[in-house]
Write a structure and sequence with these properties.
With 362 residues, this protein is α+β, with helices and mostly antiparallel strands. Helices cover 40% and strands 17% of the residues. The chain has eleven helices and eleven strands.
Length: 362
């Protein structure tokens, strides 16, 4: 999490993962999900919180996407998830408009099963909905010493380089790679400069945005979080052509091709109905190439060398992708997850509206 977007101590209350997950699961259960699917969806969100991905945990999308979507039927609470095309190494899955927090784990498990049996597993998903943080799905592969990939497209809110109107989603992707003694390498990134969830956090906390994150409705870069959220126009990774935004633009297009066009869901510009999304998952066995333990020992050397790089002036240390999330997870499992008071107030409100107990105590 970007430091200036973290809630201050006085703005949040620490809640342990277990009661938070139980409450969120009860919320999904009341909204029509099965007991198993409610637990799955809640675990995806709370794991994101544990790893410090606050923009994709329990703090924002429950209120803005999941609860309203389930209540008005845009998200199917009881989807009939189907494999519509399949080979030993691939599958096309139809999510039946279901919650991506449920459809995503289903598809990733299928990719893992195929990888364990055949070496490689690739699964494209059509007709799903928002699936949370990309890394939560890719991390599932690490439990089996596999390399995992997860990506999704989304409604268009990213302008192409030199463009004025949005054409791509934030289109995040994640690559998760196991290691031995070192925390795993987990690259989880939007192909925009930032995810919209961070703009929402900045707005809620009354913070200004760094220049290069977003534009106003006229396509002019802005630091005003209110204008940025209203316009819904983010910039590609890099921000400007001079800073390499054409690379973020290209990566976003690649994700759209693999998640939207390959699955026949449609690119970000074509997604219908509102909130629809396509996903792509992959897993493969390391032992297709070399012994697993040998690979993991080599990864340890590689990651440790990165981590031990002498820091530049003004910086304490060098990190690698996945290390900050791993450290945050250890700290939050021990001390609890900082949940903003505004989020807890919403949880109390929605509990009363749905007639379920508010069990978080704060």
């Amino acid at each position: 999490m970007v430091e200036f977007l973290k809630a201050r101590d006085e703005e949040s209350i620490r809640i342990y993962a277990e009661p938070l997950q139980a409450f969120v699961a009860s919320l999904f259960r009341k909204l029509g999900l099965s007991q198993e699917d409610s637990q799955t969806a809640a675990s995806v969100l709370v794991r994101a919180d544990l790893r410090g991905i606050d923009s994709h945990g329990t703090q924002h999308y429950i209120e803005s996407i999941y609860v309203p979507g389930l209540m008005d039927g845009r998200i199917n609470a009881r989807p009939h998830i189907q494999v519509v095309r399949e080979t030993p190494v691939s599958a096309l899955v139809n999510g039946d408009g279901g919650l991506g927090l449920v459809v995503g784990p289903y598809a990733m498990r299928l990719a893992i099963q195929k990888a364990l049996a055949s070496g490689v597993g690739m699964v494209a998903v059509q007709n799903s909905r928002h699936y949370g943080a990309a890394q939560i799905h890719a991390l599932m592969a690490l439990e089996h010493d596999l390399i995992g990939i997860s990506m999704t497209n989304a409604s268009p809110i990213v302008v192409p380089t030199f463009g004025r109107e949005p054409r791509l989603g934030t289109n995040p992707l994640c690559v998760a790679v196991p290691a031995g003694k070192e925390p795993p390498f987990v690259l989880d990134m939007a192909t925009s400069t930032v995810a919209m969830g961070k703009v929402v956090i900045a707005q809620a906390l009354g913070r200004s945005l760094p220049l290069g994150w977003a534009t106003d409705e006229n396509g002019i870069p802005t630091t005003d979080a209110n204008k940025a959220r209203a316009a819904r126009r983010l910039l590609p990774l890099g921000g400007t052509r001079e800073q390499g935004s054409h690379k973020g633009y290209g990566l976003g297009a690649v994700v759209d091709i693999l998640t939207g066009i390959l699955s026949a869901t449609g690119s970000s510009m074509e997604l219908q109905p509102q909130g629809c999304a396509g996903h792509f998952f992959a897993a493969w066995r390391i032992d297709l190439f070399r012994p697993v333990e040998e690979f993991k020992a080599h990864m340890d050397t590689f990651l440790r060398t990165l981590r031990e790089t002498p820091p530049a002036p003004g910086h304490d240390r060098v990190l690698y992708a996945g290390l900050p999330e791993w450290e945050t997870e250890q700290e939050r499992r021990a001390k609890g997850i900082p949940i903003p008071r505004k989020t807890l107030a919403y949880f109390r409100q929605v509990s009363a509206e749905l007639g379920i107990p508010y069990t978080l105590g704060a």
